Amino acid sequence: MEKNVGTLDKTIRVLLALVIAAVGYYYQSWWGLIAIVPLLTAFSGYCPAYSPFKISTKKQKD
Predict the structure, then answer these.
(1) How far apart are CA 49 and CA 3, in angstroms?
(2) I need a surface site. Which of 5, 24, 48, 58 has the fewest CB within 10 A?
(3) Whole-prediction pTM value?
(4) Cβ–Cβ under 8 Å, residues 6 and 47
């Protein structure tokens, strides 16, 4: 599993997860658990949705 999530992408995913979790907590909804998905992809550095399209936001070393 090759990492395909860059630093800026990770930051956005973590912020998005925090917003989703906060909204879920505010409305007392289980939908806030969806925040787990962007957190897992940010911390693992791998996004399965990017793989079929060969997308990578990670900087490539020469």
Answers:
(1) 12
(2) 48
(3) 0.88
(4) no
